[in-house]
Write a structure and sequence with these properties.
Strand order of the largest sheet: 2-1-10-9-11-12-13-14-15
CATH superfamily of the largest domain: ANL, N-terminal domain
Distance between the termini: 64 Å
Number of domains: 5
CATH topology of the largest domain: Rossmann fold
CATH architecture of the largest domain: 3-Layer(aba) Sandwich
CATH class of the largest domain: Alpha Beta
Structural class: alpha/beta
Radius of gyration: 29 Å
Number of helices: 32
Number of strands: 32
Shape: globular
Largest sheet: 9 strands, mixed
Length: 845
Amino acid sequence: MERRAVTDYLEDFLRLGRECAYIQRRGYRSDRWSYRQVAETAFRFARALHERGIGKGDRVLLWGPNSGEWVSVFFGCALRGAVVVPMDDAASRDFAFRVARQVAAKLLVCSREHAQDNAAGENAAKIPAVLLGDLRESLAHYSAEPVPVASISLEDPLEIVFTSGTTAEPKGVVISHGNVLGNVAPLENEIQKYLKYERFFHPVRFLNLLPLSHVFGQFLGIFLPPLLGGAVVFQESLKPGEVISTIHRERVSVLVSVPRVLQSLKEKVKRDLEDAGQLEKFQRRFRASENKHFLRRAWMFRGVRRQFGWKFWAFISGGAALDRVTEEFWGRLGIAVIQGYGLTETTSLISVNHPFRLGKGSIGKVLAGREVKLGPDGEILVRGSGIASGYWSGDQLKPVAGEEGWYSTGDVGELDEQGHLYFKGRKKDVIVTPAGMNVYPDDLEAALRRQAEVKDCVVIALPQAGNAEPCAVLILRANGDAAEVVRRANETLADYQRMRAWFVWPEEDFPRTSTQKPLKNAIQKLVLEQRAGKSSEAVASGLAAIISRATGRAASQLPAAANLDTDLNLSSLDRVELLSALEDRYQLDLSETQFAAINTVRDLERMLQGELPPRAKYHYPAWVQRWPVTWLRFLSNYGLLLPSVFLLGWPHIDGRENLTSVKGPVLVICNHIGHVDVGFVVRALPYRLRNRLATAAGGETLESLRTSPPGRNLLARIYDRVGWVLGVSLLNLFPLPRQAGFRESFAYAGESVDRGYSILVFPEGRHTTDGKLNPFRAGIGLLANNLKIPIVPMRIDGLFEVKAAGRRFALPGQVKVKIGKPVLFPRDSDPEWIARELQKRVQEL
């Protein structure tokens, strides 16, 4: 079908109707959008723009995280002929507001945080703002019927994508409707050939970790999935553990990301194998798998594949060239790695690998509708319908393409006889040695990455005799020898390519862009200053800078001996924030169990370097919330649990009328007397809530049943495991560790709520010893903030007296269960304040 404008996609969205289009994590919950909801929200937003007098040619700054709302706003602007100016969610506010002034934006659509920036400060844009998070509610009064589309031609601008850094004047690339459709058309034609097979794998789900503010992210997040009727999962976190968990939980088929994430996932897999003592066995099997059929390889590495789920089959990598070592690693495991190549000025795609005919090491074959040739110096030149309209310069656009329509990419490449394109590096990064030889850093980095001790690396140019020489900048694993690593890498290189200088990077990771590319200018600056014996004021320790942001203290005032509690005054919630920031910054999975024992900045450094014991593991079986276990639990509730409660002491229940209008799910909180509390809570809840209730139990105790401690005999271990199976299946228990590891537990609680389950938590974390309430832990506030469901306070009275008297049974009515009115706290309330308020409500019952 020939499309006249990008807005024609909304016809596909309406046709797909209730099919899931977008899934996004919000706190511990998942928000799901159908295709019809996206289209109807776009129609509503177009009407809101009309009401504001915003029409064809007007600019709208779109600044926020990936979401269904983001896509709706994008299409709503296109319907009115307004030009979207997408801004990276991580962009600095000074840069964003400079762009807003340059394009004379009439409206800002953004997150709550960015809206606050817009309303305050000397350099704020101070233009009308609409909150992305409140979009559906704010547009509810507009009609959801389709709107007339503005008169749009293929040449009309769709968006202006700004690509420059924050120090220079922003440079915007103007992309037209025709540019996008010219790049989608050849992909759509190829996809049509395989749609008859798609029904066997429907729905194809994409986990898109690329920002929608980048054109490549838009292609894989907006334009291609509807062609397959697929769903797109958005996630802000790039932490390997969370990425794998999302792939498995959402049954993702394809991960869309940048090379850095693929490298981090590879390291995660190898680190887990090493922790389990299986790495050597894996490496032997890896060597033996060469030249085996991909199905055979998938079976050989089924243990690793099981972590991702059997529906997962491919990575799509863009934004930079992927090293051969990482590509080969995933290929050996039977997972396809599809590389593409393009720039903003070419509306993303120039070439892409065919998913079933991969050219290993290449960035694919040139797409239909564009031409590619190599200049005399190997530079990649391209022309065709995907070349952007021009650079933004007010009313007059500056052309992107040069003579005869050829656009100079600034990248150096090679073409083989089969038409595969190979990326050699950025033209400006080519190192010209004193001997006049051209050295491509990508070739040297590939040789370095083949060395087992190298965690990551970049190759930069060091000035030498008016030219330059290559210098390896290395991040090594424990006990890695930089000199030996460089020596072995040099043995695989030609003499003129060899590195005679190297530098060990002092941090756990390189400084990076929002698309995870190393900032080579910053890296080169630090290396040159260190070699010159100067200190660098521009680049502080990454660890110190992160702690500084969390504590408000200058990075220079954070000595290694600084105590996190006494010197920096970190609360328990500050520690959670710091742990999350460290994981995001260094692309690692860190242990809360380890973190609970961290006292000083030096201890943190040791943890990041892997010098502390492995993390404790808790299990969250998904089968307990599936048929037939759900039916067994229903029978158990009415055949065993409730009769037992009546036998123990027929409870008197007050306040059930407070739940009349509550449909669920809810978060139930209750004081904690003993192990039988769950039965009394279940008895007090109405039918519609009690049959779908998940209960948080002591994580350490629950895990000790599943994984018996050393020294237990066989019969005792069997008894423990049976107890664990009965607990998690018949009572729907899940672990909530008392000391650490609660973030994973809270995430499971969020997944349960998404499946329609209410959650029961005892916020005291332990049984009362005197009949009085123990202080509520602040974590209940964190959970309440993220679940965003009504909280039902409950209180059990009389049971402690029965327990203290040593009696097993109570008289009818002696035990009283009181149910309070459900409560919802304002968005982003202080978790510790929530905990105090909830304790007060339970106390007053």
